[in-house]
Amino acid sequence: MTVGHILRTLGRMTFGNLASRIYLGVVVGCVLALEVAVHGFGNGDYGFGLVYPMLLTCPAFFLVVPLVPWADAAWAPYLTIALAALLQALAIGALVRLVRRLSSSGPGRAVG
User: What is the pTM for the complete model shown?
Assistant: First the structure.
């Protein structure tokens, strides 16, 4: 296996199925709705607003938090949410791939 093949497989699992695309769309929609609510209708204070995208990306969010430095950077929560959403989409894609593989083998056949 080459690196290119591995990257294509990971990309296909992350973006190549409907379930992963819907999940990523929901996360992006939540972040955009939050931004419109905070900057369009609010006073620029997030309060607990970032909790909703964080909850959408759980449990991967808590795996990614130690990797991103949260040193008062305005982009750090968004980077963490984006990385966690991509990790979750990869997991969803892997689950879809597994279910398809198991369903195509049929009952009584070995998976291999």
Answer: 0.84
